[in-house]
Amino acid sequence: xxxxxxxxxxxxxxxxxxxxxxxxxxxxxxxxxxxxxxxxxxxxxxxxxxxxxxxxxxxxxxxxxxxxxxxxxxxxxxxxxxxxxxxxxxxxxxxxxxxxxxxxxxxxxxxxxxxxxxxxxxxxxxxxxxxxxxxxxxxxxxxxxxxxxxxxxxxxxxxxxxxxxxxxxxxxxxxxxxxxxxxxxxxxxxxxxxxxxxxxxxxxxxxxxxxxxxxxxxxxxxxxxxxxxxxxxxxxxxxxxxxxxxxxxxxxxxxxxxxxxxxxxxxxxxxxxxxxxxxxxxxxxxxxxxxxxxxxxxxxxxxxxxxxxxxxxxxxxxxxxxxxxxxxxxxxxxxxxxxxxxxxxxxxxxxxxxxxxxxxxxxxxxxxxxxxxxxxxxxxxxxxxxxxxxxxxxxxxxxxxxxxxxxxxxxxxxxxxxxxxxxxxxxxxxxxxxxxxxxxxxxxxxxxxxxxxxxxxxxxxxxxxxxxxxxxxxx
Length: 475
Known about the structure:
Residues 1-36 are annotated as: Disordered. This protein is an alpha/beta fold. Helices cover 34% and strands 18% of the residues.
């Protein structure tokens, strides 16, 4: 299979083009930055960055991409991955602002610049920590910090996405061409702007005969189901945001520890408590978003601290201890994921009990209470970590934004799930802030595109090979 190669016999990522790396993103022959190829092939090193809804850290994934021609498989290798902490001076006021939903134009304007500086600082910290020559990075793909995502507007509202972390600030601070605003770019062609992970999920997980599902549990939980290649593969994917992931769990931990603990490490608190099943069932039965048919996406606006506080109060009124409350909000996450499978997958002709494998990622993948519940409900499905693909589960979203930045500078549309609001190909997948090597970058992209003899934009990538598994990251 192409998406999960035999690494012992496959390409090592460095032998076919005469260039190798020394493990820190800098080519071993001493050259920095964009490596021009006389044959018009592609060879770029991209830093993908992501700060999720939980704001628990800035994921940084340095990825090398190679492609011999627009119709050849895309080769990738994660060179380095790490999580850079979000400074508390940024995290606390942002979470407070989102919780209270009160701010001013002046504060938002300043926050956009401050977040840009924060991401720029994270690039430098990442490079310093891992001895990466910053000049070896050709491109940055930064998701930014989601402030508001209005994906399902009501009457009188306008679909919109508000992600801050000014790309021109990152570019100016680092000297590297930077791509941002991926969500607004998706909304511009009629989609909701999330989950935005089908691109990487499909390329990593499609299989000749197995039906696979990638289940992410970050602040919000989202799924991407990839049928077997024999049943459509990457051309038949469906995805959507399930609802709360770690958001309620984290909020409850902050509440009961006065902010001293921000997540339930190894599910220890939840494991000590007893689930109040009535509160779980009532919440899932009456929440409008949970019962809305896909396509759908959501965020902190719907499942934030205020909503969690209502659940906490209901638990305490029912006599629950703090451990019972954690068990209850944890079960809401797990039970809702199963509810999403059983309620909505059949409408796409998919039997949840036929899912062969579920690949887990996000912080919730390390919560044994959630995993045990999923396995209990799907006893015939193999549940495993996304790490088996050669890409660390924790790095997936950062890798996804690295690749979306690559597609943006190439003007190449990414894969679109069949259940999206619009199937319009998006060749303008982000806003580009040119860096110091902009002309060299564009020369490579144009030369690569010149080898395409077809009409219209470059063909969408449908086959990706992970040249070497990344094994350094140990959460």
